[in-house]
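User: Reviewer 2 asked us to show a designed sequence for the structure in our supplementary figure. I'm pasting the structure tokens here. Could you produce the per-position amino acids so we can include them in the response letter?
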């Protein structure tokens, strides 16, 4: 089992694999999410607080990031989202916010910060799969668009 801040250097260079970061201060929930994502074919790193998450984000590339809104006394999921969106090179990374609260309470602030999707607790594996696949597919299409436009010119 991988602990926070473990992201082997050999994985940093391999971009053929799909990588995900799960951020949740509840280790049990983080592990359940990680197992479901591994079943979808992702290599999953885990962070159990916001500070460790920021270190992983700044040192690695992820195809998708899932973060709990409330990370206890740590930087919040919203703070992590704002960091990602303001960092060149990773600003377009799909970001799914996990929350037990009603998304309407948080939606405006998260939407303004650029959240890709919400996932409500309790997490249903089929819904997790649907949202992760949707945001990663949309991200891949957006990345291909400039290439298609260049070819058409």
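Assistant: Here is a per-position design you can include in the supplement:
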């Amino acid at each position: 089992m991988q602990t926070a801040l473990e992201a082997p250097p050999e994985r940093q260079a391999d971009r053929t694999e799909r990588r995900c970061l799960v951020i949740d201060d509840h280790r049990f929930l983080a592990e359940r999410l990680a197992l479901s994502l591994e079943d979808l074919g992702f290599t999953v790193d885990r962070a159990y607080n916001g500070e460790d998450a920021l270190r992983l984000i700044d040192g690695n590339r992820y195809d998708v990031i899932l973060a709990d809104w409330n990370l206890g006394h740590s930087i919040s999921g919203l703070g992590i989202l704002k960091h990602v969106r303001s960092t060149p090179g990773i600003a377009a990374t799909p970001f799914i916010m996990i929350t037990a609260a009603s998304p309407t309470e948080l939606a405006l602030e998260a939407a303004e910060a650029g959240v890709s999707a919400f996932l409500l607790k309790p997490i249903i594996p089929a819904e997790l799969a649907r949202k992760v696949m949707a945001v990663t597919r949309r991200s891949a299409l957006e990345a291909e668009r400039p290439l298609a436009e260049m070819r058409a010119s």
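For the response letter, you might also mention the following. The beta strands are 18-23, 42-47, 64-68, 95-99, 117-120. The two ends are 49 Å apart (CA to CA).
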